[in-house]
Amino acid sequence: MRYTFIIPFLIMLVIITAGCSGLSSTAAPSLKSDTWYPVSGFVDGDTFRVKTGDQETTIRLLYVDTPETKKPDTPVQPFGPEAAAFTKQRLEESGEVKLSFDKETKDHYDRTLAVVELKDGSILNELLLEQGLAKVLIVEPNVKMENVYKQLEQSAKQNAAGLWSSGNETSQTELPERKVQPIGLEMKVDKAEEMVTITNTTFESINMDDWKLVSVRGNQTYTFEPIELPGQAKLILLSGTEEPDGLDAEALLLEWEVDNVWNNMEPDPAELYNEKNELVALWEDE
């Protein structure tokens, strides 16, 4: 009698396991930052869809917000249709997009948050800001491009572009930008030589374990292994294919295992964050 009960139970277990396996195989594939994805649909100025295998994934532009056109119980906002038309046209012309991400990759609607690169090398998020068809929207912990995007918005505002033409709009740009925590570090970047120099101006050692250096425009991040920067000492981080001449022989020397990190065609600020994600040094590429 005992065996007649166990056998049906095992059969049920096999069926359930097979069902779970089938569900997991149809889960949406994870998006990668080094892949071109076909555009498969449009929603509005800051939302569209891409093809991922035999499925679609909804993309929400990161750091920006365009005027509403389809939000329930909300009237169509000024320059909303223009933003939607601009996004649709640029995506149709590109056909495919490449995505990059910040810390959180999903919003509360389960949309993928991304910076969107077009085939011509331009960034859709930035184009919308430059045209005055979007405002900056920063939601922590996604803050990597905050300063750069606020600067783009401020330029559009000064030019009275798009939605700024009325003179009545307000934005996050009017709030203070993130400030550097003064701990005695100075940072300089030689973009041509692909060299970052960080100087400890204090007399105390600084533990840089798990700190992050960000190439803002290039959207690349270097994470420091356990290392201490002694007082009055320098640290040099190289990302070029050749070592520059005349390096400080007493400086700590590190190698970024990615070549040609820094953008030499456009401003590319550098930001240094400690293990608490506090901005502790900033190099403005002006």
From TrEMBL:
PROSITE patterns: PROKAR_LIPOPROTEIN, TNASE_3. Gene3D superfamilies: 2.40.50.90, Lamin Tail domain. The lineage of its organism: Bacteria, Bacillati, Bacillota, Bacilli, Bacillales. Keywords: Endonuclease, Hydrolase, Nuclease. The keyword Hydrolase applies. Residues 39-166 form the TNase-like domain. It comes from Paenibacillus soyae. This is Thermonuclease family protein. InterPro entries: Lamin_tail_dom_sf (IPR036415), SNase_OB-fold_sf (IPR035437), Staphylococal_nuclease_OB-fold (IPR016071). GO terms for molecular function: endonuclease activity; hydrolase activity. Pfam families: SNase. Signal peptide: none annotated.
